[in-house]
Amino acid sequence: MDNNGMNKALFSFEFFPPQTPEGAEKLTATRKRLALLKPAFFSVTFGAGGSTQERTFDIVRQIQSDGHNAAPHLSCVGSTRERIRAILKNYREMDISRIVALRGDLPSGMGSIGEFQYANELVSFIRAEMGEHFHIEVAAYPEFHPQAKSPRDDMLNFRRKMNAGADSAITQYFYNADAYFRFVEEVRKLGVTAPIVPAIMPILRLSQLARFSDA
Fold it and tell me: What top-level class would CATH report for the domain 12-214?
């Protein structure tokens, strides 16, 4: 809400940790341009099993040091309670106040998902360890998770994440706006009242559109 009591749209941008020094320079320049739009936060992805852990930490530190809010992703895959506990303490010391808690996808060749099987378990652990320190975002799937047994099962799983202590959700990007509105309507019937923010993947080139249409 703004000072006049009117609804104010909140939005964020998501970054992938760059793999090269050139990519890091490009990301810094892009972030500075996007910061002029005053997003609520910048989220930073976290590779399965912590494969981008140090690069994620570096980007998060840069965002925070520039005076902006960072929301690092945190994944179940390949994680232990001890490791997640250490990361949470590190983020608290960095004055991070928002986390995106995800199950994550099991990479090819990885035999075990880790000590957390589902995102609701990770959300519960964060709450048990850190109380209300973090605003916890989780994922929502308007066109339903590909591994879900059914749309109904997927929505019930989403409710479990919210009931575990999540504050709000960000969707995976979707191709049909009706799918988003239908998803929100159905989970509201299940008692979920928290904000569900739609994610948007900008189409910058015709080749992108062609690739997505073949997916």
Answer: alpha beta
